[in-house]
Automatic annotation (TrEMBL):
Protein name: Crp/Fnr family transcriptional regulator
Molecular function as annotated in GO: DNA binding
InterPro entries named in the record: HTH_CRP (IPR012318), RmlC-like_jellyroll (IPR014710), WH_DNA-bd_sf (IPR036390)
Organism this protein belongs to: Brevundimonas naejangsanensis
Every HTH crp-type domain range: 157-231
An annotated GO BP: regulation of DNA-templated transcription
Gene3D superfamilies according to UniProt: Jelly Rolls (2.60.120.10)
C-alpha cells in the first residue's frame, strides 16, 4: 500500500496529464485515480541537452512531468530537424524501427516517469470504454493533428507563416494546461531551436521574428513570449480551420 508521501508525489507528477486530459473531456475522480495508479518507478531527471533513454523494443513510454523534450533527426553535416515537441503532460513512446532511428533529447531540464503501463492500458485494442479512454482518444487525435500541421508547415508555408502558426499551436497547448494567460506564452526555446523546428537558418529565423515584432504581432524573448495580436497572428498563419492553429472543441 502506498503511503501518503508516495501518493502526493504521484499526484504532482501526473497533474499536467490530468489537466490536459480533462481539457479534452471530463475524466472524473475514477479516471484521475486510474491515471495516478498507472505510473511506477522513480522519476528520472535529465539536464538540458541530455538524451532521453527510450527502449523501442518494448514499446516504452514516458510521461513528461516537467520540462520540454524534442524528437528529431541529426544529419551528417550537423544540421538537425526537430519533428515534434513534448511538453508537460505529454506521453512519449518508442515503438518500432522508425522511433529507433529518431533522437529524443531534453530542451530544458526535464523530469519523466515510466508511463508504459498507462500507455498499454489505454492504447491496446479492446480497451474498456470510459470517460478517461475518450479523453485519451481525443488527446491522441490532437497529437496526430500536430504532426499533420508540421508536415504542412515545412512543405507549403513560408517562414513568416510557419513561425506564426507554430507559436499559435504552442499557445493553444499551454491554454489546455492552464499555463498561458492571455497572449503570454512560456517559450524556453532559443532562436536556434525554433529554426530547427521550422527548417530555417538561424539568420532567417531572426529576421522572421523581427518582422513579426515590427508588425506588432509577437514580442519574442527566450523564456517568455507575448503574442500581442492573436487574431492577426491567425491571419498571418494562413491555414484553414482543418489544419489551423486551434483544435475545434469536442
Amino acid at each position: 500500500m502506498k503511503n501518503q508521501s508516495d501518493a502526493g508525489l504521484e499526484a504532482r507528477l501526473t497533474a499536467p496529464l490530468e489537466i490536459m486530459l480533462a481539457s479534452f473531456a471530463p475524466i472524473g475522480i475514477e479516471g484521475r485515480d486510474l491515471v495516478r495508479r498507472s505510473f511506477s518507478g522513480a522519476p528520472q531527471h535529465q539536464p538540458s541537452g541530455a538524451a532521453i533513454p527510450m527502449d523501442p523494443e518494448r514499446n516504452q513510454a514516458r510521461l513528461v512531468a516537467s520540462g520540454w523534450i524534442a524528437r528529431g533527426a541529426m544529419l551528417n553535416d550537423g544540421r538537425r530537424q526537430i519533428i515534434g515537441l513534448s511538453l508537460p503532460g505529454d506521453v512519449i513512446v518508442a515503438s518500432g524501427s522508425v522511433d529507433a532511428d529518431l533522437l529524443v533529447w531534453a530542451l530544458t531540464d526535464v523530469v519523466t516517469v515510466d508511463a508504459t503501463a498507462f500507455w498499454t492500458t489505454l492504447s491496446e485494442p479492446g480497451a474498456q470504454a470510459s470517460p478517461l479512454s475518450e479523453a485519451w482518444r481525443r488527446c491522441r487525435t490532437a497529437e496526430r493533428l500536430r504532426m499533420a500541421r508540421q508536415v504542412v508547415r515545412l512543405g507549403r508555408l513560408n517562414a513568416y507563416e510557419r513561425t506564426a502558426h507554430l507559436l499559435l499551436e504552442l499557445h493553444e497547448r499551454q491554454v489546455r494546461l492552464g499555463t498561458a494567460r492571455g497572449g503570454a506564452l512560456h517559450l524556453p526555446l532559443t532562436q536556434d531551436v525554433l529554426a530547427d523546428i521550422l527548417g530555417l537558418s538561424a539568420v532567417h529565423m531572426n529576421r522572421t521574428l523581427q518582422q513579426l515584432r515590427r508588425n506588432v504581432l509577437v514580442d519574442y524573448r527566450t523564456g517568455r513570449t507575448l503574442l500581442q495580436d492573436l487574431p492577426g497572428l491567425v491571419q498571418a498563419a494562413n491555414l484553414s480551420a482543418v489544419c489551423g492553429p486551434l483544435i475545434p472543441p469536442p
